[in-house]
Amino acid sequence: MSNPVFSNSDVFGEPRRTGRGGAATAARPAQYGAYGAQAADAASLQNMYEAPSATPVDTQRLTYTDVIMKTGGLLALLVVVAAATWSIAPGLWIGGMIVGLVLGLVNAFKKNPSPVLITLYAAAQGVFLGGISKFYESWQDGVVLQAVLATLSVFAVALFLYSSGKVRVTPKFTRFLLIGMVGYLVFSLVNVVLVWTGVLEGWGMRGGTMGIVVGIIAVVLASMSLIMDFDFIKRGVEQGVPAKFAWSAAFGLIVTLVWLYLELLRLLAIFNSGD
């Protein structure tokens, strides 16, 4: 799938088959046999059937509120750390990038979410984004604010398109996204190698007209990845996965949002520079 945080998870997948009635059926009193069965206490049965139905909170299952709260908290931490890094030590962005990459890989392939490691990932990404954003802002005044607003706008549009049913995650959608992301990854790795070895200068193949085209493609892929993330979360809620996986859902969204922000920041910088 698109986001390894979700695609490698055992819970954010295809709906699992359950018997009719699910947990509600299991909660009902067992049928008593015709011979030797004890009569159930009438008052206890009456109280049980009059009790309100259990909510996802009561059953410790994943809810959209859980995902929103965890995502909001991680984003708040990321922004605070980014602001502090911007003001105090923007040069630490390389260390934040490396730590964030390592923690991102560790969290992406963990079967059970670790709130501590996910929180540390958000902090590391805050250091990375704070420093690199300061670099872009010193080069082009106002580009960071533009990138932030663009990221929020793309997120809102993607959420609207998915929630309204105008865009659906189909097998064709998934295949297109998978092929596009693999191609983009290969292109990015080749470009980095050519720049580091001195074959290309500056942005490498990410500069000029080609850079703009590649940047637009990357933003489209990140937007599609967001829609895939929404679909994975919806499946998790509908399947009643444990509430602890709200951390995994929030982490997956943060990963995609960071990627989207970086692509928009780079794209806007190329647009504004006229290079």
From TrEMBL:
Keywords: Membrane, Transmembrane, Transmembrane helix. The keyword Transmembrane helix applies. The chain crosses the membrane at residues 67-86, 92-109, 116-136, 142-164, 176-199, 211-233, 245-262. Residues 1-24 are annotated as: Disordered. The keyword DNA-binding does not apply. Residues 1-10 have a biased composition (Polar residues). It comes from the Bacteria. It holds the Pfam family BaxI_1. PANTHER family: CONSERVED TRANSMEMBRANE PROTEIN-RELATED (PTHR41282:SF1). This is Bax inhibitor-1/YccA family protein. It comes from Isoptericola sediminis.
